[in-house]
Write a structure and sequence with these properties.
heterodimer, A: 486 residues, mainly alpha, 0% strand, B: 386 residues, Rossmann fold
């Protein structure tokens, strides 16, 4: 059940009024849980067994930790092994088998492990992490045990954020579920505002860009450098708009129910460093990895080398979380390198104080841009082909410019290449215009003239424009969200 | 990055709900689009105004001539908003509406060679108007009349019944295997269930809502008339540097524009089409298309229309012996039902073989002959001479 489909509208039209009626009663949690399980079972009812199993194990683990201090660590291990085991089996078994078979083949053995034929349950990466954070936080003494199983199950399965986050922490969400929600008019209007922005990001932008990206990345060998460059540019925005659009909608839906979910994206393409980028991109995941992987590994407490090792491990694991493929591991590794690089640069006063902010932002975007090639490509071979085509073309172009006989010739080559590159790529002007508009909006939002955007006519005008654009110009939306596959 | 606001201190923390301090800690969003209730009302009002006014104003900007032999251009066959407009215009004149599928629309012939043209020519006035849609089957016809033909009320209607739609389970939309059929948006979306139709649940809700929202029809009209049946975004993928504003020329496709691919207006025997033996479905309650045809008549009668049914003429020359026998049985069932329901009708004999382009479509001479037969037929004379 996708947020931007009519079936969800119907679902919510049933769930919400009942929720408002029962929100002050004990039936509230039961109702939220029923709604969440129906929402989840819409994909495949069999998935329910998995989420219920995971919930029961973590609930019992914390109960046992609470009862027996001596066996606290043992039950934490049970919870972690169970969650990672589930994730490993459903998400990584295929990858593992494939690589083992490759190794077996290289050893010359005539044997191949059977490929596991399991379907990846939607949202498993999200709810296992959310559930695990509860057991870890309890183990660390940071939260109290949740006594109600129903409430805990609701925390794990809460439908707005169940399938693609934000990965909520128990200390934020459980107290909200325990309280009687105060749904104010402001909550409803705020929720609508968030939902509209998310819907626009998804239908008007992400799905639109996908129409350009998908065919190019399906057969990258059929395309020249300009198309590959534009497709990567489009994907950089598609994935941001798709995922942040989802979380905006999730937060909006939760908001109208009086629940506040954490901010998950904060204009990441305006980041001035890779660390800043990860403080703005998928915040709930990056803080999860910070709190449960990076800091337990030692964080920055054991010297620079150890810190960089910890960053590297954390980022590679983060990449692997996104998908069971070498491309994802490389993507994570590259981000680790980028983080170390910008961290070193940021140590110099010159870089911190003299280099204009816009250059730093461009650097971060260009870095993220090239790493997205690994994220989106179907295989390492494809990623390599795309990068090779882009760089070869760039080298030819640079060589042509620098070997020009005069400055005039160089200018001619430059302008002709850029013009023909754009026209050869077939990238729609409308899409480019929309992306530039989003970028400009974000730049203004983080500038000194931000107040312009808060003027009522500007906000109302933008809302009307978005509503009309979605209705009149967007395609009918039933494209799933990219992050559902993780 | 947004600055964190200071959390206000509370003197009695235990009495406050745990969530009290959450708001300042969780930023609202990474943009400034946060509307108040009043502002949402303004957004709603503007949107509703645009919703209601745009289709209305568009009709005044985008005009078309309703000539004597006008038929809905082939390319606009899926444009039901346009059908609605044409319907209103035709119904404003006191005409007998000739409604049917491509047989009546005149798939193989020009608009001045279709049945309505010859009816007008032979009757000596411009009484008959072609309100048919190419490729429409009875199930879609019922939806078309129900949602987009509301203007057809208190009129004389000559309704065509093409038994070809009941010639197999596939034509009757009864197969379990999904396939793409004409005008899926006009068929019942939820009940009765059509096994070969696999639109998503959400898609079906959108279609049902679209039937009742003029803006939805207008958006579809833009897509069909100017953007090659695509939404704007998909269109720009194929036309990356073209301006969408320039594509909206406000010039509708010509009524003379032939169907695509262009049909060969030759007799079926010359085109070496083989005889066939369709399996046919029983014309009882199990036939979806037959039930739909009956539903169309019920809708028309409920709206106070006088209905005359023209059955066929099917190209019986193309049927093998066994198929012909089955066809005759079905024809008798239809006749009996029409008689029982006291619906004026005419079931002509097959036209000469060379007057057909295929199993059901006559050629120009066929239409001329059919018009003559119809105008000479007693029940049609009665129907026509009110």
């Amino acid at each position: 059940m996708l947020f931007h489909t009519w079936i969800f509208v119907l679902f919510f039209l049933v769930v919400y009024p009942v929720y408002l009626l029962v929100k002050k009663t004990r039936f509230k949690d039961v109702w939220l849980l029923i709604a969440s399980y129906v929402f989840y079972a819409w994909w495949n009812p069999l998935y329910l067994f998995l989420i219920v199993y995971s919930t029961v194990i973590d609930y019992v683990a914390v109960v046992m930790m609470d009862r027996s201090r001596r066996k606290k660590r043992l039950w934490l291990v049970v919870s972690i092994v169970n969650n990672l085991g589930l994730l490993g089996f459903f998400k990584y078994a295929g990858f593992l088998t494939e690589n083992l078979n490759y190794l077996i083949g290289r050893l010359g053995l005539q044997y191949a492990l059977p490929a596991p034929d399991v379907l990846l349950p939607v949202g498993i990466s999200f709810y296992t992490f959310q559930s695990m954070s509860y057991t870890i936080d309890f183990y660390r003494g940071r939260i109290k045990r949740e006594r109600s199983f129903i409430r805990f199950a609701t925390f794990v399965a809460l439908f707005p954020q169940l399938v693609a986050g934000p990965i909520e922490r128990a200390k934020n969400l459980l107290p909200q579920l325990r309280d009687t929600p105060h749904v104010t008019r402001r909550d409803v209007t705020d929720g609508l505002s968030l939902f509209l922005v998310g819907l626009f990001k998804k239908l008007a932008l992400a799905d639109y860009l996908a129409q350009y990206v998908d065919p190019v990345y399906a057969v990258p060998g059929n395309y020249q450098a300009p198309a590959l460059m534009f497709a990567t540019f489009a994907f950089a925005w598609q994935i941001y708009l798709d995922f942040s659009g989802y979380t905006d909608m999730a937060r909006g839906i939760a908001r109208v129910m009086g629940l506040r979910l954490m901010l998950n994206f904060n204009n990441p393409y305006l980041a001035t460093g890779l660390r800043d980028f990860w403080a703005r991109w998928h915040i709930s995941l990056s803080t999860w990895f910070r709190d449960y992987v990076y800091i337990p590994l030692g964080g920055n407490r054991r010297g620079v080398f150890a810190m960089y090792c910890n960053i590297f491990i954390t980022m590679v694991v983060s990449g692997f979380w996104h998908g069971a493929a070498w491309t994802m591991i490389i993507w994570g590794g590259l981000h680790a390198v980028g983080m170390m690089l910008t961290r070193e640069l940021e140590r110099s006063a010159f870089y911190r104080e003299r280099v204009p902010k816009v250059f730093k932002q461009i650097f971060v975007f260009v870095f993220a841009y090239f790493t997205w090639v690994f994220f989106r490509a179907r295989s390492l071979g494809d990623a390599w082909l795309i990068l090779k085509t882009i760089f070869t073309s760039f080298v030819h172009f640079t060589w042509a410019v620098f070997s020009a006989e005069s400055l005039g010739d160089a200018w001619l080559i430059l302008t002709e290449t850029l013009t023909s590159g754009f026209t050869d790529s077939g990238f729609p002007l409308l899409a480019l215009g929309l992306v530039v508009a989003v970028w400009a909006y974000q730049l203004i939002y983080e500038s000194k003239v931000k107040q312009v955007l808060t003027l009522a006519p500007v906000r109302v005008g933008l809302a009307v424009a978005m509503v009309l654009y979605i209705i009149v110009f967007s395609a009918a939306g039933d494209q799933p969200f990219i992050y559902f596959q993780f | 990055m947004q600055k964190r606001q200071k959390t206000p201190r509370t003197t009695a923390p235990n009495l406050k709900p745990e969530t009290q301090n959450l708001e300042p800690e969780i930023p609202f969003s990474s943009n400034a689009l946060r509307l108040s209730g009043r502002q949402w009302m303004v957004v709603g009002l503007i949107t509703v105004a645009v919703f209601s006014l745009t289709p209305f104003l568009w009709e005044r900007v985008e005009t078309f001539e309703l000539g004597p032999d006008y038929r809905i251009p082939y390319r606009l066959g899926d444009d039901y908003w346009m059908y609605q407009r044409v319907c209103r215009r035709m119904c404003a004149q006191d005409k007998t509406l000739v409604i049917g599928d491509s047989v009546i629309w005149g798939h193989y012939v020009a608009m001045d060679q279709a049945l309505s043209h010859y009816l007008n020519e032979l009757a000596g006035d411009e009484r008959f108007a072609n309100l048919s849609v190419d490729g429409i089957h009875p199930a879609a016809m019922a939806g078309l009349i129900k949602y987009y033909g509301r203007a057809i009320s208190g009129k004389d209607v000559l309704l065509h019944c093409n038994l070809l739609w009941m010639s197999s389970k596939k034509h009757d939309l009864q197969t379990d295997e999904e396939f793409s059929f004409n005008h899926p948006r006009l068929v019942p979306q939820f009940s009765p269930r059509i096994p070969c139709y696999t639109e998503s649940f959400s898609g079906r809700i959108a279609i049902v809502l679209g039937h009742n929202l003029p803006l939805s029809g207008w958006v579809n009209h833009l897509q069909v008339a100017y953007f090659q049946n695509q939404d704007l975004q998909s269109w720009t993928i194929e036309h990356p540097y073209d301006s969408p504003f320039r594509a909206v020329t406000l010039k509708l496709p010509s009524v003379d524009e032939p169907p695509s691919p262009r049909p060969i207006a030759e007799a079926w025997s010359k085109r070496r089409i083989a005889k066939f033996n369709p399996p046919w479905v029983e014309l009882d309650d199990t036939s979806f298309q037959w039930r739909s045809f009956k539903r169309t008549i019920a809708i028309l009668k409920r709206r106070g229309n006088r209905v005359f049914v023209l059955v066929g003429p099917f190209n019986e020359h193309m049927l093998e012996e066994e198929g012909l026998a089955k066809y005759n049985t079905r024809k008798n069932v239809v006749e009996t039902w029409l008689q029982d329901e006291r619906i004026a009708h005419y079931i002509p004999s097959a036209l000469p073989s060379d007057y057909y382009a295929d199993a059901s479509h006559p050629l120009s001479d066929g239409y001329a002959l059919l018009a003559k037969q119809l105008l000479d037929h007693e029940s049609f004379i009665r129907f026509n001479s009110r």
